[in-house]
Records
---
Amino acid sequence: MRAGYRGSEVLRGIDVAVRSGEVVAIVGPNGAGKSTLLRVLAGLLPPHAGSVTLDGREIASLDRAQLARRIAVVPQVFDTLFPFTVREIVALGRTPWLGPFGTLGRDDTRAVTRALDDVDASALADRRIDRVSGGERQRAVLAMALAQEADVLLLDEPTVHLDPAHQRALLDVIVRLARDRGLVVLAVLHDLNLASAMATRFLVLRDGAIAFDGAPGEALTRPLLRDVFGPGLDVVTHQGRAFVVPDGEDARAR
Amino acid sequence: MFAVLATLLVVSAVAGVFIGAVAIAPGDVLAALMGQDSTAGTIIRELRLPRVLGAALVGGALAGAGALLQGLLRNPLADPFVTGTSAGASLGAVIAVAAGATATVVPLAAFAGALVAIVLVWRLARLGGRTTVLTVLLAGVVLTSFTGAAVTFILVSSDRLALRLRAVLGWLQGGVSVISWGELAVASLVVLLGIVGAIFVAPRVDAYAFGEETAATLGIDPERTTAVILATTALLSGAAVAIAGLVGFVGLVVPHAVRFLIGARHRRLVIASIPAGATVLVLADLAARSIIPPAELPVGVITGLVGAPFFLILLVRSRRMIV
């Protein structure tokens, strides 16, 4: 699959298949095409060549509502001046299931309650979204995507505004749901250590192509990281797991 | 909540009919409404009643349009007036009047003008990929200045309008003073159509809370839904302008206040904003008729004097969202 924007091709030859239950971390340097890949997978950007298929069916042949029942996207940019409650935000996830009159039925209410439970946000349900903390807000948005009851979950840096403990907690929820419900999860992540702790598979992008596709442990090697990200990174091993750290050279000494 | 709003609307409308520049005893007002032939009867049936109904229609239409626009643009500072939609409608209406169109065609011309304006603002506001409060307001300023200049040009150059300059200016300033039952009937139909459209599309407007792209991933067809929202807004603003010219800030302030009371979901917001807007404008018109009797101010003067400071307060409070 090849894709990009007017006049420039960002993704040049991506060929990948993902099975349910897999948690795929999409990593790579800035500008490698990670977010573009996610937008193509979400059906927001039609590819220049090739296609995206879901259970053998091209997503281009599905309408917006059909697509939203299969693929949920956790948005990254997130701000609203309107006083929606957390429950109302989560209920937005039911949009693709609504009938022509747009009213919530019993199934919708049940899905919303379950999604709130999944992210442990039931206690927040009636709080205003602009009055909860960043971590709580991120959980609400995840619950919104879960309420879509889709088989595929796409996340673009879901933890970007969270402190390390909250990052870990959010990713734990995602991994548990992927395992228990057989979801396909693809997440763009910048924190390689966090990514290796949650993902079952690493997709490393460089210049719009796949530089590595495999187990997280095999991705975190010094040669590959240098090759993809350039100099400045090192890999250390702690209790049998590989960790990425800034290399030993003291930046202040340069 | 809705019962309270409906009651308020009825009470204010009754007040609007019973109170006016010419003092008429309540008994005579009732007699006039029953069809009694007298000077009072003429005043009530041909002046006050259509004026009150006109004000209610305009207020309801503007508030409904404002609620939709704010949702679409993710911007609590949007309404038909500040986005230049009303200005576009006024240009359409003035062109129609200058061309000698009948009173029934004027609302349609206003609708066309509103549609062109709102689509233009929508396009301009999206130039950077995402709409911001500031670009919407700037696009509105540009559009309002342009249409204002064009309207003045037509007013001055048209022989037909030159004779009625005072009346036309009064209407442009937001005056519901001159309105016939025929005009009212046409405008009501347009507003009714707009209200049905607004209530129908409102739940989908919720999905725009985090932007158009998220709306798409939630299963909204952004192009189609946006088109419905823009057309509905244009219907409501066009009808409002055809009746009362440029009435500012009702469409902005009313949905804002209502949202504060009942929450952000757009179907509730639209359904509550319409009677609330109608009530506000009926009362504003009552004030416009009573403040300096026997002279009558255009209702747009009242909404401007009250609404503009309110707008500034909102602007300051939402500064973090401006750019």
---
Amino acid sequence: MEANTRDTGRLPAAFLTPGSSSFMDFLSGHAPDMLPGKRSVPPLQGAVEAPHGTTIVGVTFPGGVVLAGDRRATMGNMIAQRDIEKVFPADEYSAVGIAGTAGLAVEMVKLFQLELEHFEKVEGAQLSLEGKANRLSTMIRSNLAMAMQGLAVVPLFAGYDVDRGKGRIFSYDVTGGRSEETGFSSTGSGSVFARSAMKKLYRDDLTEEQATTLVVQALYDAADDDSATGGPDVARKIYPIVTVITEDGFRRLTDDESSGIARSIIEHRLERPDGPRAALL
Amino acid sequence: MSTPFYVSPQQAMADRAEYARKGIARGRSLVVLQYADGIVFVGENPSRALHKFSEIYDRIGFAAAGKYNEYENLRIGGVRYADLRGYTYDRDDVTARGLANVYAQTLGTIFSSAGEKPYEVELVVAEVGESPDGDQIYRLPHDGSIVDEHGSVAVGGSSEQISSYLDQRHREGMTLAEALKLAVQALSRDTNGGEREIPAERLEVAVLDRTRPQQRKFKRIVGGQLSRLLDAEAGGSGPASGSGGPEESGDSGDSGDSGKKDAGGDGSEGDA
């Protein structure tokens, strides 16, 4: 699909039509077949076998938000990929982590990133965090037909709200329903275990360092009980992806940093395999 | 039945070209210069919201003189073209050459089609490379031709005069502050040879900085960072060795800004 192959080589009219700052709007007018939601899937018997991404967790702390994900993708009861990356920067002040059908999810993230960048370039200003969250909602909803076939994509969206000066987390359901979470949230197959772990460990005065440790603890607990979630793989040096978004923007922890956190957690779990003990009352 | 007046094709084209040139000449000039770490765009622009320079893609910037609605239209068309191409293939497959070609075709078709008013715009498309050798600057006049420029280029009102001024003084490997100084000097020269002062608030400055850690190299220079660079230039103009000073201040501004996105310039302004 080339932009400039029409007869004279000049930009087609759709490119020069003023109005929308949305790349998706432009695409739906000019090349609708490139939009993920416009594809039809023939009705199928049973579930489609495709790699699925699993657990994503997010925690807010004063001054920002942490979003992290494990590295496993499964296909049925097989491990499809050990080092998949499921947490991406959406733009400078937000990140998106995805659970669900990996192929569709990666495409959705790519389009979402482009949508935000396109808006920023055309308008000369960034979308509000709410605006970004709503845009993602629309994209998930357009995938509803696929979701009904078992190819769902359920992201977790986290960002630093520049106007309010704090980190925020939004969770979604397959129909595009959006809800803002206070404190912490998770999505994907191991989310139940991760959420329970975070519930016991979360405090509202965490430092950035504690928040990054907390998400890796939660992922460890998810991997402990959910076969589709991968724990830190010390032998292969594959560690969870941990990202931090603050006033200074998006930052992904380096491999050294995340391996440091994972190793110290493993160290402590040698003493107490179930992780840190919370107070009874 | 009355026969229409015969107008020779040469005359018709000359009339259209003159119409477009006059429109462009009414706008203020702007200059685009290479410096050691990239490409700098400098222009006089009283408006803070209506930009003459903008980001098209990771390494590609856009500058335009002439009629705002027409170049804004082309700018958005270029952003759409680049984003679609990058989405279809890969981010590396979006090039200034490809974009300049599309612009040239568009301008050329509009210019030569009798039914359309020629666009009163002159564009510059620039791409910053990994090294100064990889930098590309294309100037696109109203009629759809492409001029591959090296070092420096001026478009708009008194562009010829400014170009020749720049050609004589621009050299390779200038620091950002030096290039900025040269650009402001060139822009301050009036059509009738006199000089006037352009205050910092009326300057629009942007860079494609190859040393930026982010994928997107375009950045607006505003507020404190701009006045620091201009001040550095005033102090640094005496001793030639002062070039280290201005460069340093420019760099420290950049690195302090490295975590920020250049959204409308306010990000970098807050940081400066």
